[in-house]
């Protein structure tokens, strides 16, 4: 049976109350990307960046998976082949919605990372400037999040899955951030059927065989069933 590879973005969590990045009133409306989502921004003002991620961690902690997350979990359970979810999201709503195979390419809000020794641990609810790494004691703890200019996680594994994809679906992502925006081309090269599910056509919509438009909580369960 065909392998299904699903790429998700902020749009799938929007109806769980988590803001998207680039929609009107989205996260970047209140912050400049270079201030809160780059290693240079963190070096300049770690308190601002910790504050941004502490607020997001608290918001995500109170969010519940929606019908789109649970539909994908159902697909993973019922599809006779493999279903791999690659998410750009740093929330854990796929997992709390019942999904089992989820690759977090941009990290997670629940993780802390030592910028010195790369040790990883569970982030406290509030991270603060100068917090020591439990392994090397350096005061270089940061959120375990992939910022602009950094290499997204698990790329070899993701490209291997894309090379074997029979079906590729992109859900709730604007297609503006690479390398995720180019996954559709990897899937096409592998001979996969491609479908985009989004509120509005993304910048890469013309690359897909099919586009299904609407809120994720409506179109994803319909696509799965
Ligand atoms: C709904 C909905 C509803 C709303 N239902 N839908 C060319 C090639 C390669 C790289 C580059 C390149 N050009 C530039 C780069 C570098 C850069 C980049 O892409 N810049 C662009 C701005 C041009 N990329 C990087 O630096 C990345 N690293 C890298 O490239 O390393 C080198 C490399 C090269 C080649 C191969 C491998 C590696 C790192 C990117 C890190 C991104 N980090 C962020 C922030 C951290 C996480 C966090 O704080 O949460 O990740 S940026 C932000 O954007 C976040 C997201 O994961 C990411 C994607 O956003 P997403 O999910 O698409 O959200 P939105 O808001 O943009 O879109 C939401 C969509 O949902 C919209 O379409 C809505 O319509 C829709 N929607 N409500 C359904 N109810």
From TrEMBL:
Enzyme class: transferase
Name listed for the protein in its UniProt record: NAD-dependent protein deacylase
EC numbers for this chain: 2.3.1.286
Keyword terms of this UniProt record: Cytoplasm, Hydrolase, Metal-binding, NAD, Transferase, Zinc
Summary of the function given for this chain in its UniProt record: NAD-dependent lysine deacetylase and desuccinylase that specifically removes acetyl and succinyl groups on target proteins. Modulates the activities of several proteins which are inactive in their acylated form.
GO CC term (a single one): cytoplasm
Chain positions recorded as Zn(2+) binding sites: 114, 117, 133, 136
A Pfam family hit: SIR2
Main location class: cytoplasm
Catalyzed reactions: N(6)-succinyl-L-lysyl-[protein] + NAD(+) + H2O = 2''-O-succinyl-ADP-D-ribose + nicotinamide + L-lysyl-[protein]; N(6)-acetyl-L-lysyl-[protein] + NAD(+) + H2O = 2''-O-acetyl-ADP-D-ribose + nicotinamide + L-lysyl-[protein]
Domain Deacetylase sirtuin-type stretches: 1-225
Residue positions binding substrate: 53, 56
Binding site for NAD(+): 9-28, 88-91, 172-174, 198-200, 216
Domain comment as written in the entry: 2 residues (Tyr-53 and Arg-56) present in a large hydrophobic pocket are probably involved in substrate specificity. They are important for desuccinylation activity, but dispensable for deacetylation activity.
Cofactor: Zn(2+)
Cofactor detail note: Binds 1 zinc ion per subunit.
GO molecular function: histone deacetylase activity, NAD-dependent; NAD+ binding; protein-malonyllysine demalonylase activity; protein-succinyllysine desuccinylase activity; zinc ion binding
InterPro entries xrefs: DHS-like_NAD/FAD-binding_dom (IPR029035), NAD-dep_sirtuin_deacylases (IPR050134), Sirtuin (IPR003000), Sirtuin_cat_small_dom_sf (IPR026591), Sirtuin_class_III (IPR027546), Ssirtuin_cat_dom (IPR026590)
Active-site annotation: 106
Gene of this entry: cobB_2
Localization per record: Cytoplasm
């Amino acid at each position: 049976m065909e392998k299904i590879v699903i790429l998700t973005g902020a749009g799938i969590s929007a109806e769980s109350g988590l803001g998207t990045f680039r929609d009107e009133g989205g996260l970047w409306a209140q912050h400049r990307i270079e201030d809160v989502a780059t290693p240079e921004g963190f070096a300049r003002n770690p308190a601002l960046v910790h504050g941004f991620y502490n607020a997001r961690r608290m918001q995500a902690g109170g969010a519940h998976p929606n019908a789109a997350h649970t539909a994908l979990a159902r697909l993973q359970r019922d599809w006779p082949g493999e279903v791999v979810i690659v998410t750009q999201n740093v929330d854990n709503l796929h997992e709390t919605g019942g999904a089992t195979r989820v690759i977090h390419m941009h990290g997670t809000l629940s993780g802390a990372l030592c910028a010195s020794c790369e040790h990883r641990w569970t982030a406290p609810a509030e991270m603060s400037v100068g917090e020591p790494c439990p392994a090397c004691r350096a005061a270089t703890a940061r959120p375990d999040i992939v910022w602009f200019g950094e290499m997204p996680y698990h790329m070899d594994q993701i490209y291997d899955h894309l090379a074997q994809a029979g079906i590729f679906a992109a859900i709730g992502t604007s297609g503006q951030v690479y390398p995720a925006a180019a996954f559709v081309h990897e899937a096409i090269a592998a001979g996969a059927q491609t479908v985009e599910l989004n509120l509005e056509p993304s910048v890469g919509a013309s690359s897909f065989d099919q586009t299904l438009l609407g809120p994720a909580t409506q179109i994803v369960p319909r696509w799965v069933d």
